[in-house]
Design brief:
The chain is of the alpha+beta class. The protein contains 11 helices and 8 strands. The chain has helices at residues 97-102, 107-113, 117-133, 138-160, 164-175, 183-190, 194-205, 209-227, 232-238, 244-255, 259-263; strands spanning 2-4, 12-18, 23-30, 39-41, 44-57, 62-65, 70-73, 80-95. The strands form 2 sheets. Strands 2, 3, 5, 6, 7 and 8 form a 6-stranded antiparallel sheet that branches. Strands 1-4 form a two-stranded parallel ribbon. The longest helix has 23 residues, at 138-160. It is globular. The two termini are 31 Å apart.
Length: 265
């Protein structure tokens, strides 16, 4: 077992972008087998898997992850990886303890943020896009984007304490992710007044119904784009968009990337 210092990972590091206040964005690639024993990292971090996958083992659980998966690592948390698929590619966003204190965040808040997986993925992709831009505004932009993970915490806490119909609504929306339900349809299924959903939706979901559905659709499209088995028009229709141009605009708005740019990552 050994401990990796900040900005160090087992794979080949393709790109590192650091801010002066304690955020590091590290792009790693795995082309060959690396050390598969127990290890840890100095800093807490969130990893977004772009390609490939691995079997992640912690003290109390084991999980197989692939493209689009998110994992959170506490500082100094022991873990190991086995059965890694090659090539694999990850984006790691790590943060130093002092910045967490300055932002009035905690590792527990970061860990909880990945429950709101689509939003967290999109924040990480926008952060990564800023590292590719790398101009005078990028460091501040990355800090602002990172702080949005804490903002989602309030809505997650409200969601956990929400009425039963809110969780039923979430399940319904995720079941019809490639459709375009309206308030009337949803209210009929849930036997509610449409005004009830309209009034309380932002409180529990942190956004409007339209924004939530766009997140779900774009989140589902990530793996479809990386598979390269379908063209953009087919993916747009499969995800319930009216046309390819609408899909492209929405994808860029959510992730910061055009679909073809994301496909090349």
């Amino acid at each position: 077992m050994y401990e990796l210092e900040k900005e160090k990972y087992l794979g080949n590091i393709k790109n590192i972008f650091t801010t002066s206040n304690g955020i590091a964005v590290v792009e790693t690639e795995y082309q060959n087998k690396v050390y598969e024993g127990w290890h840890s990292h100095n800093n807490a971090h969130i990893t977004l898997f772009l390609k490939g996958g691995t079997t992640e083992k912690r003290k109390n659980f084991s999980e197989t992850v692939g493209p689009g998966s998110l994992l959170f690592y506490h500082s100094d948390e022991l873990h190991l990886n086995q059965n890694t698929l090659f090539p694999s590619r990850n984006i790691n966003v790590e943060v130093e303890e002092n910045l967490l204190k300055d932002l009035q965040m905690s590792e527990a808040v970061l860990e909880k943020s990945i429950q709101n997986s689509a939003l967290t993925k999109f924040i990480i992709l926008k952060i990564f896009k800023e590292t590719l831009t790398a101009d005078a505004f990028s460091a501040d932009t990355i800090t602002m984007l990172f702080s949005q993970m804490a903002n989602a915490q309030n809505h997650l806490e409200r969601f956990e304490k929400s009425p039963f119909w809110v969780k039923s609504l979430q399940e319904l929306l995720n079941d019809c992710w490639n459709e375009n339900p309206n308030l009337q349809d949803l209210a009929k299924v849930l036997q509610l007044n449409p005004i009830t959903i309209s009034k309380h939706f932002p409180k529990y979901f942190g956004c409007t119904l339209g924004e939530y559905m766009r997140r779900i659709k774009i989140n589902r499209s990530l793996s479809l784009i990386q598979s390269k088995e379908s063209n953009l028009t087919e993916i747009a229709l499969e995800c319930g968009f009216s046309d390819q141009s609408h899909f492209i605009r929405t994808f860029k708005n959510q992730t910061g990337f055009l679909p073809k740019q994301f496909q090349k990552l």
